[in-house]
Write a structure and sequence with these properties.
Blueprint: H1 3-12, H2 24-38, E1 44-47, H3 56-64, E2 74-78, E3 81-88, H4 97-108, E4 112-117, H5 119-129, H6 141-145
Parallel strand pairs: 3-4
Antiparallel strand pairs: 1-2, 2-3
Length: 146
């Protein structure tokens, strides 16, 4: 077989599919599930439902009732202090100019804001803030169930 034939055969082979990273929505579901499971007592949290596609009527209603573009994905109150966590994919996720401006406004008002790129960063931030139990500390999930 000639070198040209080998190159042609190689070119016809399908490339292995790229491993897709989780969407920001999937990441947020996982972080919320972790908070539900491992949040320390007294930590309050909720997701901010700003994402997704909406028609102009729904968007106008949301704006009229106080929805603000660029607000971080998850809000928490930890020891009386407001914390906000923006979630981005590990690769390719970037803050928009509107998000950057909102983060600056939150910090100016005395809140704490962080951006996590991927699950590991999100969990590390939540541990640093004292929102969740550190891995391996205290009772494990099975002990709580019994």
């Amino acid at each position: 077989m000639s070198g040209t034939a080998i190159i042609e055969i190689a070119a016809r082979r399908k490339k292995a599919p790229a491993i897709q990273q989780p969407s920001e929505e999937a990441l947020q579901r996982t972080v919320i599930a972790m908070l539900r499971w491992a949040a320390k007592p007294g930590v309050y949290f909720y997701a901010v439902p700003n994402g997704g596609q909406r028609n102009s009527i729904v968007a106008a209603k949301m704006k009229a009732t106080g929805t603000v573009a660029g607000v971080p994905d998850i809000a928490l109150v930890i020891d009386g202090c407001a914390h906000f966590l923006e979630l981005k994919r590990e690769r390719g996720g970037r803050l928009s100019d509107v998000q950057k401006a909102q983060h600056e406004r939150i910090v100016a008002a005395g809140g704490i804001v962080a951006t996590a790129r991927g699950l590991d960063e999100a969990l590390a931030i939540l541990e640093d803030w004292g929102a969740i139990r550190k891995a391996g500390s205290g009772r494990d999930h099975q002990e709580e169930a019994s």
